Amino acid sequence: MILKRNRLPSLFATLLALTAFGHAARADVSGLFFGVNGGKARIDTDYALYQRQQQDAAAEFGSLIFTKASLSNRRTAWWVETGYMVWPYVGIEASYLQLGKMNNEVAGTYTPTGGTAKDVRAATAIYSRGPALGFVFRLPLAENIDIHFRVADYFGRSMLTNTLIVATTTSSTVTKNSSSPLLGLGAAYTVGGHWSAKIDYTRIQGANIGTTDVKYNVDMLSAGVAYTF
């Protein structure tokens, strides 16, 4: 399940309330840590924008109409992390995220001025990956359970590819490196004082796609393991 954006504040509030009831039974753990995580990422953007751009470009020569669409915006994703807990509850973290690719395919017809209709297909693909640097905050709930928050800057490399197939295939690709805010919320269960099994929700807001006016957001739900020295 992908968490919706408007549920995130209420989830934060709920976990903070739980913290107040179950505070600080867990032993403090500080030092270097690393982890690996895998799950599903969802990339969202204004899919219709690229269709409108193609229709506007074709308007001078005829009529381009899209009638069918197929969207695949949830893909397998992973990220790795390393950092240092400067204090028991506050640390710095560097991570690398591979968020997969979103595909949106549409089909329709193109009718040249004074001509006959031809079948047409188009596709938009967005691919995102890159490093992030920020802070992590851990709050204990019980002896072996804590929740953690991540606030970071995601310096993502985004690749946008638009493809149009009428009689021939035309394709254009734009690549962009840009910064965007990353927020994370998760919970961990620690075994033996150092190994942790954890789940995380990660949100990347307003990543830039090349030279277009549209940005994209990423929601990722993952599970992983971490080791703190």
Description of the structure:
It is a single chain. The protein is mostly beta strands. Mean pLDDT is 83; it is low at 1-9 and 11-27. The protein has a single domain, classed as Porin. A hairpin with a 3-residue loop joins strand 7 and strand 8. It contains two helices and nine strands, in the order αβαββββββββ. It has an eight-stranded antiparallel β-barrel with strand order 1-3-4-5-6-7-8-9. The longest helix is centred in the N-terminal third of the chain and has 14 residues, at 8-21. The relative contact order is 0.22. The protein is elongated.
Give a short account of the largest sheet.
8 strands, antiparallel, barrel
- What is the CATH topology descriptor? Porin
Query: Would you report the number of β strands?
Result: 9
Radius of gyration: 22 Å
CATH class: Mainly Beta
The order of strands across the largest sheet is: 1-3-4-5-6-7-8-9
Number of helices: 2
How many domains make up the 3D coordinates?
1
Instruction: Report how far apart the termini are.
Output: 32 Å
Shape: elongated
